[in-house]
Design a protein that fits this description.
The protein is an alpha+beta fold. The chain is built from 13 helices and 38 strands.
């Protein structure tokens, strides 16, 4: 009987033994390999040579009908293909992108596919439905297991309220916590992108792309192990109007599913960027490359540029004969300033529509929009309007049609503060309808970009960044200077940022203080100039007042004339949390920007990318007294040496900005 039992057990094990299969896919350069193992569950692992970057990690999708893609799933066939194309990217950090990858598609009998793509700079995967019926997703399991207790750079959901379900509604703005995996707070969600430090200077960045008809991904470490797992917001069930000035929709209760999907739905790409050094994180295109191509045929009307902006400086203008505030005289003053400096736009931020009504057709009596539009047109300036989420969402078509016909060129939409499926759907709907009426969209108060700016190029900018607005109310314990040299390696990997730099009142660590009416930046004047190079922002604000800019002619000229989209971008150097240097080129002119943390720093820049010829540089550098007086700077003009080596010095919290052109 014992022998018979053993034989029977072996026979039962044989089908499972043969069902266990592994499939490998290499990056085009052969250095990275993803291994997909199909057993009772599906796992993937990522390696580089003999180094395990991601240990075997399970992935699955649970459906409302009880089916689980990835649990006991039966493989039908596997196909492979190579991709090699050039993607046009007209409103981006480079004019075109080389998209070279290897792809493997695993098709399963349960009517779904699992697609893996390998790039030289990382991997991505997504689930795809092959069924013919709608379906609901109750959960998606995405795990990232690691062999060691690596340190991470993570942005927690800021409030960290309990229970976790209350954290789904948040502003997606926070500084970074640098902590080991085991030290992550098990009760706090993290929003992506996040970075994991590994051996030999290697970094991994977890991100996502092409999030459509689906919620965004949070991460958490619930048990203190060397692992991160996904958490996705369930679909809203019960909601009410409320929040900031009654402009938000607050979720009171959620459904027992995360997404309601149509047949053939493509779930988001889950991305792991692999960087051999930090600067590679600062110039990565995977999120853009994996997004759905443009759905707008004619993009000729889309006009990136800079914006004169009143909210940060609190209408802080002087030497005028009218009371500054929300009125036509004030905005005409901003329009005059923009016109003098060739600035493309002026924004009317919160206040032009009647407060607490969430109705964009109720304009305050102090504002005559028709008159302002006509005045701006005479000055070759266009207007953008701020809009609270609910005021815009309740009647998108009518709002877009009316204000487009009035001559408004775009909307800055604020206070969404969620990324559940309903809110993601709103972003696509807003982008599509705005494009119909040739309107730009700047999504403020929202989640990080996931490629929508490729799919709808009129989506010209995103916030989801701990921007300069925080300096209106945060004390020095909020270390914005360190954030500025951390965020470009992490958040900016996802896409453009509405950071709103350009402060002319600048402060050292000793002198900084929060002030709503007369705000200042942390760090030096040249830091603010360099941020226009380092930060990617196709619609770029000038946060300070015309009065302050008129006092600073040299700095204003640099800011006003710098491009906002680029032909080329080069990440020159950098270390997360310490310093960064970026170079960007437009129509043969190069701009270089460097930032440091609170440590004074000397860097040698390698400008060999300039190529042949004789070049000259305008250099804006921290003054000799900038460690005491953050506004101290000097401008010099030099010839670039034949060696293409240039040494720059930065003060504490400092920066350096260069404009380099042919002699």
């Amino acid at each position: 009987m014992k022998t018979l039992f053993l034989i029977t057990a072996l026979l039962c094990a044989i089908p499972n033994l043969f069902a266990q299969k592994e499939y490998r896919l290499d990056s085009p350069d052969g250095k990275l390999t993803v291994t997909v193992r199909i057993d009772n569950q599906i796992t993937y692992s990522l390696t580089e040579g003999n180094q395990t970057l991601v240990a075997p990690s399970p992935i699955s999708v649970q459906l409302a009908d009880g089916t689980t893609w990835g649990s006991g799933s039966r493989l039908k066939n596997v196909s492979n293909r190579k991709g090699n194309e050039v993607i046009p990217s007209p409103f981006y950090k480079r004019s075109e992108i080389k998209d070279i990858y290897n792809e493997m598609t695993l098709n399963f009998r349960e009517r779904f596919s699992l697609i893996f793509r390998m790039y030289d700079e990382g991997m991505a995967y997504r689930f795809v439905s092959n069924g013919s019926k709608p379906f609901k997703v109750t959960n998606e399991e995405t795990a990232f297991n690691f062999e060691k207790d690596y340190k991470t750079f993570v942005p927690y959901v800021k409030d960290g309220k309990q229970p976790i379900e209350t954290q789904f509604s948040n502003s997606f703005e926070n500084t970074y916590t640098h902590v080991a995996l085991s030290g992550l707070n098990p009760q706090r969600l993290m929003f992506t992108p996040i970075v994991i430090e590994q051996d030999n200077g290697r970094k991994l960045c977890i991100a996502e792309s092409d999030v459509e008809n689906y919620p965004g991904m949070f991460l958490i470490n619930r048990d203190g192990k060397n692992s991160l797992t996904s958490v996705l917001a369930p679909f809203p069930k019960e909601k009410k109007q409320g929040g900031h000035n009654e402009l938000q929709i607050l979720v009171k209760e959620r459904e027992d599913y995360i997404a309601s999907c149509q047949p053939k739905a493509k779930l988001p790409w889950r991305i792991i960027v692999v960087a051999r050094n930090d600067k590679e994180l600062a110039d990565n295109d995977m999120v853009y490359k994996l997004a759905t191509p443009s759905r707008i045929k004619d993009i000729s009307w889309i006009r990136p540029g800079k914006v004169a902006w009143e909210w940060w400086n609190h209408w802080g203008i002087q030497n005028v004969d009218f009371k500054a505030g929300v009125n036509n005289e004030t905005y005409m003053h901003y329009i005059d300033f923009a016109s003098r400096h060739g600035i493309e736009y002026v924004i009317l931020d919160e206040g032009w529509a009647v407060n607490l009504q969430a109705d964009l057709f109720q304009v305050v009596p102090e504002i005559d929009l028709k008159k302002l539009v006509a005045y701006a047109k005479q000055k070759n300036v266009d207007l953008i309007l701020w809009a609270g989420y609910y005021a815009f969402a309740r009647d998108i078509e009518r709002v877009c049609k009316h204000y487009s016909e009035l001559g408004i060129k775009g909307f800055k939409i604020d206070f969404m503060d969620r990324d559940d499926q309903e809110m993601v759907d709103f972003h696509y709907q807003a982008a599509e309808i705005a494009a119909k009426y040739k309107l730009l969209v700047d999504f403020h108060g929202t989640y990080k970009p996931t490629g929508l700016n490729r799919t709808y190029p009129n989506v010209i900018n995103y916030e989801a960044v701990h921007g300069l607005e925080q300096m209106k109310w945060s004390d020095i314990r909020t270390d914005q200077v360190t954030y500025d040299v951390t965020m470009p390696f992490i958040r900016m990997l996802a896409g453009p940022i509405d950071y709103t730099q350009g402060a002319m009142r600048n402060a050292t660590k000793r002198c900084y203080a929060a002030c709503n009416d007369a705000p200042m930046s942390q760090g030096t004047r040249c830091r603010q100039l360099a941020e226009y190079v380092v930060f990617e922002s196709p619609l770029n604000m000038l946060c300070d007042s015309p009065t302050n800019y008129d006092r600073e002619e040299e700095c204003t000229d640099f800011i006003a004339t710098i491009p906002t989209v680029w032909d080329q971008t080069v990440a020159m150097n950098g270390e997360i949390g310490k310093y960064i240097t970026m170079a960007r080129q437009k129509e043969g002119v190069w701009y270089v920007g460097s930032l440091t943390n609170w440590d004074a720093r000397t860097l040698e820049l390698d400008l060999s990318f300039l190529g042949a010829g004789e070049w000259k540089a305008e250099i804006y550098s921290d003054g000799i007294n900038a460690n005491r007086l953050a506004t101290d700077y000097k401008k010099t003009v030099i010839d670039i040496p034949a060696s293409r080596k240039l040494t720059i010095n930065m003060a504490q919290g400092g920066g350096c900005a260069l404009k380099i052109s042919k002699r």
